[in-house]
Q: What sequence folds into this?
């Protein structure tokens, strides 16, 4: 069943950019990326992920983004947090817990560095926007605390 004219008008007004990101873990550590200086937010540490493509499922999008950025195959677990924010356009960000079976990541062309860090160091390394998100969001703090309590194997 298609949209009627009034619904089409509303859908043209209410468009959100959907971002999917993954807190990728392996042996108790969290994967962070540092993009090249010439990229948006370049030179800062970030959680891997990016924009969802049209008609793409959330879990499919986060897997595609992480594989494109790092070459890692991941398993997606639960959604850790979801938030909305406005920058140049309204955005919704879905943050997943993902697990990498191996640490065989590749340094792709748009990346300067890749690092696995202990959960307690994640907030210290991230760019200002993402660091603030971890500081201010109770769900994220609790998630990282639970990661710290898990045994590293």
A:
């Amino acid at each position: 069943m298609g949209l009627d004219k009034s619904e089409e008008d509303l859908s043209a007004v209410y468009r959100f950019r959907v971002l999917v990101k993954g807190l990728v873990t392996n042996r108790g550590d969290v994967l962070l990326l540092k993009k090249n200086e010439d990229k948006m937010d370049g030179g800062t540490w970030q959680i891997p992920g990016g924009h969802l493509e049209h008609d793409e499922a959330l879990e499919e999008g986060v897997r595609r983004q992480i594989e494109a950025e790092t070459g890692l195959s991941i398993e997606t677990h639960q959604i850790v947090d979801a938030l909305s924010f406005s920058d140049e356009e309204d955005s919704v960000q879905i943050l997943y817990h993902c697990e990498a079976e191996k640490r065989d990541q590749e340094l792709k062309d748009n990346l300067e560095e890749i690092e696995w860090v202990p959960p307690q160091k994640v907030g210290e390394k991230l760019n200002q926007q993402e660091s603030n998100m971890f500081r201010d969001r109770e769900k994220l703090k609790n998630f990282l605390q639970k990661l710290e309590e898990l045994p590293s194997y």
Observations:
- Residues 15-149 form a domain with the Nucleoside Triphosphate Pyrophosphohydrolase fold (CATH 3.90.79.10).
- The CA atoms of residues 24 and 137 lie 18 Å apart.
